Amino acid sequence: MSKYQKISNKIEKIIINNPKDESKHVSWYNIVNAGKKELEYLRKKYSFNTEHIQASTAKVTSQRPIIEDKKDYLFVILHFPVYNSNSDKQIIAGEIDFFVGHGYIITLHNKNIKVLDDFFNSCKKDNNSMLSYELESSAIVLYEILKKLMTENYKLLDSNSIEVNKVDKKIFSELPKKLNTEILNLKRNILNIRKIIQSHKNILKRLMSMKSSIVPRKELKKYYTELVDSSKRIWEITDNQKEHIDALYTTNESMMNFRITNIMKILTIFSVIVLPLNLLASVFGMNVTNNMPFVDNENGFIFVITLMITSSLTILIYFIKKRWI
């Protein structure tokens, strides 16, 4: 069973407690958009390092994942790929800060980590199916949270794969310039995911050495090894997606270059064909009457036009024989 408590507008708490052993339970605090009041609450309730508390404010974003093992607790900062709330198709890094101690776990994050709030709400209603309900360890709660977040990563990767396949099908049927924006957006999202998760493996390996007074170390290591394997699979999938989108980008660039080259070729041919027309028009347009052929001839205009057409056709036939057009 679980006991829910709303401490403030930004702090919620559930107590995961198996009736089989009332002496053991885990308190999970979920804090969204932490401000001064929320951090003051943590400072008074727990003896956390001041730097760790300050790093957990919603106004501060860590540029790298962090894991620090203190005497009474473990402080972890991890980033996970999420969709930008201001843009449906842009993937950015969402930060989650964890304080993990004996009998409690605290998660601090912004509103864009919807999957964590959804998981918290589902646990609030019914946590009997949770592994931590049986084992009642904060290390197991952390494992379940990370597993849920990584499962969400697979959904993002599936979404990217669908978009990549769509571009693959459209690349020979639509204008390259039109597809260029789509390809660059996908490329940016894939690179962002890779940048976000590239350090997960090292952090998770360090979590494998975490101690628990309830769960045997060998069993705890088994669960976190599963997360490491999942992190490797995510990296491999993004690696394949990166290769695919790079190939599509190269193909699209080649098609754009071919299109530009073809346009330049047509314009050059047109210019060369028109060149003798301009030359003859300029010559016969000079205000010179002495010794100018066809000037006094009543069929002079027809002769000039015939000469112009003949010269242009000669050049055109030459291009065709050379297979330039």
Would you kindly provide a written description of the structure presented here, covering whatever features stand out?
The structure is a single chain. The chain has 325 residues and is of the alpha+beta class. The chain has two domains: 2-256, CorA soluble domain-like (Beta Polymerase, domain 2), CATH 3.30.460.20; 266-321, Methane Monooxygenase Hydroxylase, Chain G, domain 1, CATH 1.20.58. It is 57% helix and 15% strand. It has nine helices and seven strands. Strand 6 (91-101) and strand 7 (104-109) form a beta hairpin. Helix 5 (138-170) packs parallel to helix 8 and helix 8 packs antiparallel against helix 9.
In short:
With 325 residues, this protein is of the alpha+beta class. It has helices at 36-45, 50-55, 114-125, 131-135, 138-170, 176-197, 200-207, 217-284, 300-321; strands at residues 2-6, 11-16, 26-32, 66-69, 73-83, 91-101, 104-109.
